[in-house]
Each structure stands twice: as structure tokens, then as C-alpha cells.
Design goal:
With 278 residues, this protein is mainly β. The protein has 2 domains: 22-97, Immunoglobulin-like (Sandwich); 104-272, Glucose Permease (Domain IIA) (Distorted Sandwich), CATH 2.70.70.10. Helices cover 13% and strands 39% of the residues. β2 and β3 form a beta hairpin.
């Protein structure tokens, strides 16, 4: 009997103290440019959490509260921490960030201004960037309709992945901040989750662009569109039409570029459609 009890005790020690939540299994990819899903425990009311001085998404998953945190691409592997406020107290919750290597991509552009903009272009780009940064920094209280997202276009292969170190005509530029879908011009672009249209524009680099706020810091951006079928303030349902694929802005051909942002951090959209590659 004592041997049996010892065996059972060893088995209990070998088991995890707490099973992963449903959303953790789907989304927890704690690498630079990825998502950390962090258990915040049980409580009657939702705790509040922040990471790098930005509020982060907090959801109930089963009986527990979790934080869904975007990790910047430039984050070094190792320990990171959230600040969590609950029941009048503030505590630190640590989590680990792993490593991930992103590859390079070399692109040739015929329009040299899309590589080295002139002074007037730079003024326009600065103005447009400010509009887009403000859209990404929104944090509205509503819970997203779904955090495991639908693909914004039907069919098509995933072309340029998130995180590519890009070179235009041999010159290094910022890493690719979204996911590209190689689909024909005119393909309908649909909302991957319900939300409110918060920005519409025709930008120097992005071309015709739509931003959708899904709630709690989750913001989607769709660009290089040939047509836009929504306006600022529109409430769009999951699957609602946003526009059509095109090649406007800095694009070498028709495709959809899709960004997903959490807590003002651009993260790999592939995580949300079960297409992530470690």
C-alpha cells in the first residue's frame, strides 16, 4: 500500500498544477512578435493589467481571468512582467519570452520614390503615420466577438509572412508588420471579427486602408485595397464586407496585407488563424 501511495504522489507531482485554458491552447505563442496568454487567477471582477505602460486585453476563460498580451518584435528572450490590479492591490505577474528567427526578403521596386521618398512625400508620410498610430493605440472596453479570427479573404496562399526583414532595392527597411495573402484583385475583404471602423484612408505606403477596432486593444488593419466599402463609425459584423483586394500604395501586385495589433504592438496574424510557424 505504501508503494502505491508513493507512486500516486509521484504522478501528482508530475502533472501540471493547472491545465491550460482554451484560449491559451489556441493563442499562447510567447515569442518576439507573438502573443502571451497569462493566467491571472480567479476573481469575481475582472482585474486590470498593463504591459510596458499599455493596457492589455483581459478576458474570462472558463472560471479564470487571462491576459492576452502582444509582444514587440524587438523583445529579447527572457523574463517579462505584467502589472496587474485587482481588489485594490497591484502585483507583478512574470512570464517568459522565447526566441524566434525571422527570414529576409528582397524586393525590387520600379518607383524609386517608394524607396526614398522626396521631402513632400515625407511630410505626407509623417502626417499619415500619426493618424495610424492613434488608431492602433485605441483601447475600448468591449470584449472582442472572437479572438480566434477568421481569414479576411477566401482562398489564396499566405505569401510574405510576418516579421520578414525587408530590403527594397537593396536598402533595409522595417520588418514586415503583417501577413500577406496572394489573392486576385477584386477579392472581397471581410472582417475577421466584429468591430467598429475607426480609420479609412488612402496612404503613401499602404494605399487604400481600413482600420477596425475589435475591442480591448485588438485592432486590425487592411491595406493595398482597390475599393473601400465602409466609412468611419460603421459597426461591422464578423464576416462583414470591408472592401476589395488591390495593389494601391507600395505594392508589386494585387494582394491583401493584414495587420493585427494588441496593446499597440503589431503581432503575427498567423497566430489567430491557426497558421503560426515556430
Amino acid at each position: 500500500m505504501s508503494r502505491l501511495l508513493l507512486l500516486l504522489a509521484c504522478l501528482c507531482l508530475a502533472l501540471p498544477l493547472r491545465a491550460e485554458t482554451f484560449i491559451q491552447r489556441l493563442l499562447d505563442r510567447p515569442v518576439p512578435g507573438g502573443v502571451a496568454v497569462i493566467d491571472l487567477g480567479e476573481a469575481a471582477a475582472a482585474p486590470r493589467a498593463s504591459y510596458r505602460d499599455r493596457p492589455v486585453m483581459v478576458l474570462r476563460d472558463g472560471q479564470r481571468w487571462i491576459a492576452v498580451v502582444g509582444i514587440p518584435l524587438g523583445t529579447a528572450a527572457g523574463a517579462q512582467s505584467l502589472q496587474v490590479q485587482a481588489q485594490g492591490q497591484t502585483r507583478r505577474v512574470d512570464f517568459e519570452v522565447g526566441t524566434k528567427r525571422y527570414v529576409e526578403q528582397h524586393i525590387k521596386l520600379a518607383n524609386q520614390r517608394q524607396v526614398n521618398p522626396n521631402p513632400d512625400d515625407l511630410k505626407r508620410i509623417e502626417r499619415e503615420l500619426a493618424e495610424q498610430v492613434a488608431a492602433y493605440r485605441r483601447f475600448t472596453p468591449g470584449t472582442p466577438s472572437n479572438v480566434f479570427l477568421d481569414r479576411p479573404v477566401d482562398g489564396g496562399r499566405l505569401s510574405s509572412p510576418f516579421g520578414l526583414q525587408r530590403f527594397f532595392n537593396g536598402e533595409p527597411r522595417n520588418p514586415h508588420s503583417g501577413l500577406d495573402f496572394a489573392v486576385p484583385a477584386g477579392t472581397p475583404v471581410k472582417a475577421p471579427a466584429a468591430g467598429r471602423v475607426v480609420l479609412v484612408g488612402d496612404y503613401f505606403f499602404n494605399g487604400k486602408t481600413v482600420f477596425v477596432d475589435h475591442g480591448q486593444g485588438m485592432v486590425s488593419m487592411f491595406c493595398h485595397l482597390s475599393a473601400i466599402d465602409v466609412k468611419v463609425g460603421d459597426e461591422v459584423p464578423r464576416g462583414g464586407l470591408l472592401g476589395k483586394v488591390g495593389a494601391t500604395g507600395r505594392a508589386t501586385g494585387p494582394h491583401l496585407h493584414w495587420n493585427v495589433s494588441l496593446n499597440d504592438v503589431r503581432v503575427d496574424p498567423a497566430i489567430f488563424i491557426d497558421a503560426f510557424k515556430p
